[in-house]
Amino acid sequence: MSPLNVAVIGGGIGRAHIAEGYAKLPALFRVRALCDIDPVRLANVGAEFAIPRLTANFEDVLAMADIDIIDICTPPSLHFPQILAALATGKHVVCEKPLVGSLAEADAVIAAQAGAKGRLLPIFQVRYGNGLQKARHIINAGLAGKPYLATVETHWWRDAAYYAVPWRGKYATELGGALLGHAIHAHDVLTYLMGPIASVFGRADTRVNPIEVEDTAVASLVMCSGALASLSVTLGSAREITRVRLCFEHVTFQSSLVPYASGNDPWQIIPTSTKSGMAIDAALADWRFVPSRFEGLFAAFHSALVTDGELPVTLADARASLELITALYHSSQTGQPVSLPIGPEHPKYHSWRPA
Ligand SMILES: NC(=O)c1ccc[n+]([C@@H]2O[C@H](COP(=O)([O-])OP(=O)(O)OC[C@H]3O[C@@H](n4cnc5c(N)ncnc54)[C@H](O)[C@@H]3O)[C@@H](O)[C@H]2O)c1
């Protein structure tokens, strides 16, 4: 089978999609077009990867008959209309986080996907890393036992230079703050490994930068399994870390501290008994290395497309991440806990942003 032809929209994180993902998988993908309204970025990224077609016009890409995948890496407020337009062409679609700006938009995308020829991959590349995937394998093999407790820390650093990009720091264009834009990855890892969330109590504040959206938050969760979880988030940590620690009956997992690739080795996998340790060792005996971030995610995406298998990140996963966001904002604004799931009757279903 020949490689799938990709058009990347937006050359910021879109450049990393190419460098870390598509360019490392030349047998699976070819980047044939790049679209960016910034002419300098368009020319630079286009030249760096010898991309044959460069355009500032998204409509041009929609009309390119040979493109199989449109990969949307534009600012968050553009995702919803661009996803709908891209799905309407029948092509496959990849879209950066946050997928869209509300649960209502997520449900509209789910409905559009159901009637579309192409499939939609939401981005959660931190899932891909050899350490995290071993933990997932142990849990899926039924060897972890009852989930007890999780702590998830997203302690990063952002300063004025970061917020000089005009769309950042504002509800209208970034759609939210550190909970939405930064901690969303580690919080996705929590549900990826420990399952869905039942209840959320959150507190959010803006303490680090003079911005409209939050940059510091904490939350207390009850998972559907009954396990308890705590989240802490700041963009004011002098040393950047992401840490996920998950305590189960038979094993405790602890991620590396690496902030943007916390799925990578080394993960500590600490069995609670010799018997558990032997079962885990046996389960990992034939383990095959899982590549990191976009390379691992896009390889799994290609495999799902050719086998018609389950996507490595589903629309349900993306919706669940936005449901947590909605609950966190509602709880921190009202001072009340929020029960999940959240449907159309919820006051923040159409927007989690303050009125
Ligand atoms: N997965 C991750 O780890 C990760 C990391 C960073 C950003 N992101 C997400 O990726 C998205 C983009 O973030 P970024 O940091 O790359 O932003 P950015 O501002 O650096 O890049 C976005 C690019 O999109 C271009 N653009 C804007 N409107 C456009 C349009 N209508 N058509 C074509 N191009 C257009 C801009 O010129 C810019 O070059 C956001 O949703 C962000 O949350 C994800």
Structural write-up:
The protein contains 13 helices and 14 strands. The protein is an alpha/beta fold and about 350 residues long. It folds into two domains: about 140 residues, Rossmann fold (3-Layer(aba) Sandwich); about 160 residues, Dihydrodipicolinate Reductase, domain 2, CATH 3.30.360.10. The longest helix is centred in the last third of the chain and has 20 residues. Nicotinamide-adenine-dinucleotide binds next to loops.
- Major sheet strand order: 13-12-11-7-10-9-8-14
Which hetero ligands occur in this complex?
nicotinamide-adenine-dinucleotide
Radius of gyration: 20 Å
State the end-to-end CA separation: 50 Å
How many distinct helices? Answer: 13
How much helix is in the residues?
Answer: 25-40%
Please trace the helix and strand order, writing H or E for each element.
EHEHEHEHEHEHEHHHHEEEEEEHHHE
Q: What is the average of the pLDDT values?
A: 97
* Strand elements, count: 14
Strand content: 15-25%
User: Low-confidence parts, pLDDT < 50 over ≥5 residues?
Assistant: none
User: What fold name goes in the CATH topology slot of the largest domain?
Assistant: Dihydrodipicolinate Reductase, domain 2
User: According to CATH, what is the class of the largest domain?
Assistant: Alpha Beta
Question: For this structure, what is the CATH homologous superfamily of the largest domain?
Answer: Dihydrodipicolinate Reductase, domain 2
Output the structural class. Answer: alpha/beta
Number of domains: 2
> Tell me, what's the shape?
globular
Which architecture name of the largest domain does CATH use? 2-Layer Sandwich
Main β-sheet, in a few words? 8 strands, mixed
